[in-house]
Amino acid sequence: MKLDIKEIPFSRYGSYFCISEEKDSNDVYIRDIHGGDDAPSRLFKIALVENGIEQDFEVHASEVSVQFHIKGRSEAAVEMIIPKENELHIEVKNIELKLTADKGKYDSIMELARGMFEYHIYPKELKLMLLNLSGTLNVQAPWNIIGNDYIDICLSKGHFVFESYQTVYKEKKYSSFHEGKDQVTRQYKAWFQSMKPLQVDDQYLSSIERAAYITWSSVVHPHGLLREPAMYMSKLWMYNIWSWDNCFNALNLGKEHPELAYKQLKIFMDTQDESGAYPDFVNDKFISYNCTKPPIFALVYDQLMQKNDYFKETSRIREVFESTKKVMSYYDNYRTFKERLPHYKHGNDSGWDNASLFHEGMPVEAPDLASFLIRSYDILASFAEILGEKEEAVSFKERADSMFKLLMERLYDADGFYGRVGKDGKIITNRSSLILRLPLLIAYRLDKTIAEELVNDLEQNFETRFGLATENPSSPYYKENGYWLGPIWAPVTYLFIHALKANGYTEAADRLRKKFLDLTLEGGMAENFDPFTGEGLVDTSFTWTSSVFLQLLHEHYGDD
């Protein structure tokens, strides 16, 4: 694959290193994503120098290496690979590579031995060891009391390594550049084959290449607060793990990589607050409980059990069961006013940050939240049966029945579902957001006419050339590139396709699936998409988009 590092950063499975080109300046940086997306990520700006003058260069990247060479002169080149998680290897031929540190106040570099420099990066609590294995290395870094004024590193004619670590460096023997490249090539090929359907049309090959690479290269190794390998949402600029994004990534991994899939769920079960809330997001340095995302763990785990017997193991079902019970208690105890339905305290809680449903204020009783909880109670009842918890199975079924009755009393009328806002539960008159159609997830509980009205509503008011717009395009709230005010999103698409298929609306499900598969040919694996042009919007290297695409592709070809 020809990798555009403006759109998709160059990296590898397990590594915090990545290399990307900034869209505005066209500057290329070696980056490190420790600390999440609130931490600085730039390490070094890349320049190619000849006779003391910086030259224009071209970038040629693939899944296993990234090359920079003088325009029209492929022999004057620099190549970089990441053969191991903490090692960035650089080979320089017939040119000089200049690396200018994007440093902070106390950041400092020092020579420890000939051809061996240690760089301390204070904001990231990170150290880099730079080693000259076979070339010429020159470091310009004038000292000024508490740090270097600047750091310029010049490399030429040989093989160099940056190794990252937190405390101490341990000497080792490094593989040759050629051996390292072969090693990462083998590893990526194995991943790619595990992601690709057995039978697939060539038309989707470019999307498969993007999706497979993004999912592989967005994983980081355990470090700090992360006790398991974690698939970040992106290494471009949204490098955290959010607690519903991770569920869609786990779903895609479930069949071929069940252990890795389960570890994505474990990240949040292991960081669950004593109140029962999952964090909004996690990275290696920080856990945020400001918001809590939609309760879809049970729904996803129920699907994972159908993919692989690994998830039917009793101890795992028990762990998910007990954790999900705490989530449900959280909504009962801390998100529900007396004789009301559970509520959101911000649009971010729903995952639909700025949807029109939330424009009047907070808190909001929303039918999608009630539907997720009802579905979760129904699934918990089935888990309780498997675990021999007969009384709990009955109790969960009763809770689901009670919440469903309240949903239909408080948030449904002849014109469909709606929301309520504020401490007094005022009815929200605007009904133009797609989020209000998510009760389709519990269509098995709805009167048949209500379910069919929801399906007709989707087709008539939200379905576009490329799929389901998140805001009715005729609404005054609809906004081009408006985040949740119109663009198509992968997870929402998946939820609706799943609901349609599960409740007998297979024709509509198949049509939306095909539209989304085709959408990726226009917009790649972006965070979201224009519903009329298919243009990829915002972050262009997103894992849950990639995971949903791969999942839907396997379903399309009957592999799932």
UniProtKB/TrEMBL annotation:
Entry keywords, A to Z: Glycosidase, Hydrolase
Positions of the Mannosylglycerate hydrolase MGH1-like glycoside hydrolase domain: 239-545
Endpoints of the signal sequence: none
InterPro entries registered for this protein in UniProt: 6-hairpin_glycosidase_sf, 6hp_glycosidase-like_sf, Glycoside_hydrolase_63, MGH1-like_GH
One Pfam family of this chain: MGH1-like_GH
Family in the record: Belongs to the glycosyl hydrolase 63 family.
Name this polypeptide is given: Mannosylglycerate hydrolase MGH1-like glycoside hydrolase domain-containing protein
